[in-house]
Write a structure and sequence with these properties.
Length: 525
């Protein structure tokens, strides 16, 4: 039976119809009937998220109470008074109760020892389908016993009132660890549901000795696990979808004393520029049941235009893990042999691959570097370095040092190799040089996974530290030295110094109290 305490305990009578744990087909039908989306020629549900085509990190709040004592308060983790949360909770519950709404009961966490039952109550049918595809779907027996440890209430058409609700705008994502409730209002971007649950796990799992990670993961036939860290657009999903290896998951994982496990039951892949040639597994996963966000579709032919940025560059596909052939289900594997930090360096100065020791790995994990490109945000006219601690700072309620210390301990305990892989530019910056070919990056990744890069000659990078790998099977050695690919060597040196200074300034500002060995392991301007 559905537990409706989120309504009844607030004194709210439910008057709108409620659909509970209905099928994928029924949710697709409802979304189309209610004009929430349309079917593509491949059967995927194509939706648009309106004003918000991405997350709204400045509108994320955590209730400041005893249950939040380990929260690292600041610009990322903003405080919300408990009274404001309770008032907003009542308004959102009343809003949902008064209209048709959808309930999905599922789980987060493939490892049964660390599995969290989750309930998602949504105003939109396609949001419920999104939750169904991205969380772990229960069996009938599990559903009968399901009791949520956390509930998400999503009401995109309800606007927050900054004066009353203690919010920055009419949009809000608020988490209460004592009430075990997430509130989302004023945004139709479904990724907020996924990331809110991830944020909750990022706070809770360390107490169970589990390192939560914003990364993709796969495993080879010999049981060799690989982790792929990186911010949006760096290639996590693309590189982890390897037909020769089983996909564990594409975005969120835990690392326990037994190994790695997926926190989700689906994938949330970026679609811009998607092609069957370069990303065959992801392309094939876009079919009936898949939710497409902001992908442009011809209204007559229903054909998809993956190259179009008319709505946003952040086009997305949400589909269950089993849509990927050979995916590992249940998504639980051993300890990683290799960790790959992916960065799309638009300045073109980082080499395609650097081998990192433990302290260097912690430095780059804390830094979480990639580039913003010109034209992707208003006011960005040239590539700009951006840093996101743990490659997922907006979702980390605890201090970044907490997660970095846990990572260092795991690397040391399991002798995991770590590499920094540049999936960005070479031969010059964005607009001058060229993007490193995906085939080259795949060879680097394959070399790391096979252990080949452990045995080749390396040299210390004079600016960025780490060890430059001088030989990758199947790659032109000339491509592995970023400076040699630039015609203007003086321009390279200037750009390298500028990026090193950006690294140093960011680290000094955020992590001045990090261990000396870690502070000294980074780039030197």
């Amino acid at each position: 039976m559905l537990d409706v305490r989120h309504f009844s305990e607030l004194g709210i009578d439910r008057t709108g119809p409620m659909s509970v744990d209905i099928s994928t087909a029924a949710l697709v039908e409802a979304a189309v009937r209610l004009d929430e989306g349309s079917l593509s020629d491949e059967g995927a549900l194509v939706t648009a998220t309106g004003e918000f085509t991405g997350r709204s990190p400045q509108d994320r709040f955590i209730v400041d109470d005893r249950a939040a004592r380990q929260v690292a308060w600041g610009a990322v983790n903003q405080r919300m008074p408990e009274a404001a949360f309770k008032s907003l909770h009542a308004r959102i519950a009343a809003h949902l109760a008064a209209r048709p709404h959808y309930v999905f009961n599922g789980f987060a966490g493939a490892d049964l020892r660390h599995r969290m039952p989750v309930r998602v109550v949504t105003e939109l049918a396609w949001h419920s389908l999104f939750a169904r595809q991205l969380l772990i779907r229960p069996t009938d027996a599990e559903l009968d016993q399901h009791q949520p440890a956390f509930t998400v209430l999503s009401a995109p058409t309800l606007k927050a009132d900054p004066g009353r609700d203690h919010t920055r705008s009419q949009t809000v994502i608020a988490i209460s660890f004592s009430q075990r409730v997430v509130l989302i209002a004023g945004t139709a971007y479904a990724g907020e549901i996924k990331k809110a649950i991830f944020s909750v796990l990022n706070y809770l799992l360390p107490d169970a000795g589990v390192l939560p990670m914003h990364c993709s993961a796969n495993v080879g036939k010999a049981g060799d696990v690989a982790l792929f860290f990186g911010l949006s657009g760096t290639g996590k999903t693309t590189l982890s979808a390897d037909p020769e290896r089983a996909l564990i998951g594409d975005d969120e994982h835990g690392w326990s004393d037994r190994g790695v496990f997926n926190l989700e039951g689906g994938c949330y892949a970026k679609c811009i520029g998607l092609s069957a040639d370069k990303e065959p597994q992801i392309h094939a996963a876009i079919r009936f049941g898949t939710v497409l966000e902001n992908v442009v579709m011809d209204p007559e032919t229903r054909k998809l235009d993956y190259a179009s940025e008319a709505l946003t560059e952040n086009t997305r596909a949400a589909y269950p893990l089993e849509y990927i052939p050979g995916a590992l289900i249940p998504s639980v594997a051993g300890h990683p042999r290799v960790i790959l930090f992916l960065t799309a360096d638009a300045s073109g100065v980082l080499p395609p691959v650097l081998r990192l020791n433990e302290e260097e790995a912690m430095y780059h994990f804390l830094s979480g570097y990639t580039s913003k490109l010109a034209g992707t945000e208003r006011g960005v006219t040239h590539p700009e370095p951006t840093f996101s601690a743990c490659f997922g700072e907006p979702f980390m309620p605890r201090s970044a040092e907490t997660y970095a210390q846990m990572l260092g301990e795991q690397i040391r305990a399991h002798e995991t190799g770590v590499y920094l892989v540049n999936t960005g530019w070479t031969g010059g910056p964005y607009g001058v040089g060229r993007r490193i070919d995906l085939a080259i990056t795949r060879k680097i990744v394959q070399g790391a996974l096979a252990g080949d890069l452990d045995r080749v000659s390396v040299r210390r990078h004079p600016v960025f530290g780490g060890s430059v790998v001088e030989d990758v099977p199947g790659c032109d050695p000339g491509l592995l030295d970023a400076r040699s690919t630039w015609q203007d060597k003086a321009a390279y040196d200037r750009s390298a110094r500028e990026l090193a200074q950006a690294f140093s300034a960011n680290f000094d500002k955020k992590f001045a109290n990090a261990p000396a060995a870690v502070r000294q392991a980074g780039p030197r301007p």
